[in-house]
Amino acid sequence: MELSNQLSGAYLPRVRAFIVENFLFGEAGQFQDDDSLLDRGIIDSTGILELVSWIEASYGVRIEDSEMLPENLDAVVRIAAFVERKLGVNTTEGRALCLEQAPAPTGPSTVTT
Amino acid sequence: MNDLDLHMDCARESERITGFIAETVLRQFRKRGVVVGLSGGVDSSVVAALAVRAVGANRVLGLLMPERESSAETLALSRLVSEHLKIACEHEDITSMLEAAGCYRRRDAAIRRIIPEYGDGCRCKIVLPSVIEDDQYRVFRVVVEFADGRRSEARLDLDAFLGVVAASNFKQRTRKMLEYYHADRLNYAVAGTPNRLEYDQGFFVKLGDGAADLKPIAHLYKTQVYQLAEFLGLPEVIRTRPPTTDTYSLPQSQEEFYFSLPYDKMDLVLFGHTQGLLVAEIASAVDLTPEQIQRVIRDIEGKRRMARYLHAPPVLIDGLGLA
User: Fold this and answer.
1) Which sign, positive or negative, has the C-alpha torsion A46, B113, B110, B152?
2) Of B162, B186, B204, which residue is a domain's last?
3) Would the pLDDT of A91 be above 60?
């Protein structure tokens, strides 16, 4: 998959470990990093929520609804690349951030009318 | 008849279902009648009317089970149906049972995780964004209306979502508990009221409205249930009432809570997909693009995967030969 070429690789092992541990119960089998999580039935709509909550809590980022797309979340490589983009890992700040302990996640965005 | 025509011979279908109810209740289960929970909606009204035809009005009990967050018309419409069908009915307000179980308290605590100002005098519902516009994953949001009319909306996180759903499910399970109380008391069977959309897509609570001794209209699309309602002569207000969940204190359509499309289009997409029709044929029939139909079908398949658990009976290690 082309996205894997854009990765620094910093996040892939942790993302893969989370998916394998939480959704495959430690049994990775033939699971590949570019496998579609939805098409393979690995996660469902509740699983998406679990994944988003984990990313937000682990990396201290807020994922907007508009970012909850298959191209960002439907495979280990896509998730890792998405996290990398969210953290701006190619910048000095981003690299520093990913080496530190993750900050507390931001609160949920609320729209009031 | 084109490939996506859901019109049916109502007289024939009515006869088939009433035969099924009589055979199942009286001869197979050897019960003396049928309990139906009446919601004032078309599904439960049709099931009650069919049960009357099958076993007689004097052997059907309608249960009216509103709670403090039910819509104002729920009780009146349920009563209207029971009077129209000339069946006995029992009014069981389940509010106090839900309070005792902590239904409202637990749900409200889950909502406050996301909207801390939520409290007394507020109303709420949970909603899903449309599935047809783009490929974005659909994640539930909570909508809160404060006493002064302001509204606040936010995405639910995993714990809040599960907490809201788990607490709200007390409503369906409490109603089912009462249906079985009356069924046991009268030696009746309990008729479930899901239509095909709900049954296929898992739009029910396991051991709540998903529990029943028989489900006489689970093979009928919602459009067909409305056809039967007309054939059976149910009151017009019932036949024309839009489907609603009547689970949260704010009005909530079934589309914003669960289904991707209004029921008439959803029926056709589910029917076409189940029949193996081409996406382009379905798209043409419901006036959507093939891309939009693909998204709806992905949603249908995802819900079917989740429904497997809901439909599954308890699993045993070995069969016991008790068939």
Assistant:
1) negative
2) B162
3) no
Query: Within 10 A of B115 (CB to CB), how many other CB atoms are there?
Result: 22
Kindly report, residue by residue over B256-297, the tens digit of the pLDDT. Answer: 777 778 889 999 999 999 999 999 999 999 999 999 999 999
Q: Is residue B188 part of a domain?
A: yes
Residue B317 lies in a domain: no
Q: How far apart are CA B193 and CA B55, in angstroms?
A: 17
CB B237 within 8 A of CB B268: no
Q: Please tell me whether residues B109 and B216 are part of one structural domain.
A: no
Does B322 reside within a domain? no
Tell me which chain A residues have a C-beta less than 8 angstroms from the C-beta of B302.
38, 44-45
The one-letter amino acid code at B106 reads R
Best CA proximity match to B227, nearest among B16, B2, B46: B46
Q: How many folded domains does chain B comprise?
A: 2
Beta carbons of B89 and B39 less than 8 angstroms apart: no
CA atoms within 13 A on the CB side of B177: 11
- With CA atoms as reference, the chain A residue closest to B115 would be A110
Contact (Cβ atoms closer than 8 angstroms) between residue B22 and residue B54: yes
Interface predicted TM-score (ipTM) over 0.90: no
Are the beta carbons of B21 and B56 closer than 8 angstroms?
Answer: no
Residue to mutate among B127, B134, B152, B155, with most A CBs inside 10 A, is: B155
Residues B138, A45: C-beta atoms closer than 8 Å: yes
The helix/strand/coil state of A112 is strand
CATH, residue B79? 3.40.50.620
CATH topology of domain A2-99: 1.10.1200
Full domain range(s) for residue B127: 104-162
* Spans of all domains in chain A: 2-99
What CA–CA distance (Å, rounded) separates A46 from A51? 9
Q: Does residue B66 belong to any structural domain of this protein?
A: yes
Note the pLDDT tens digit of each residue in B191-210.
999 999 999 999 999 999 99
Alpha carbon B95 to chain centroid, angstroms: 20
Which of A101, A107, A69 lies closest to A85 in space, CA to CA? A69
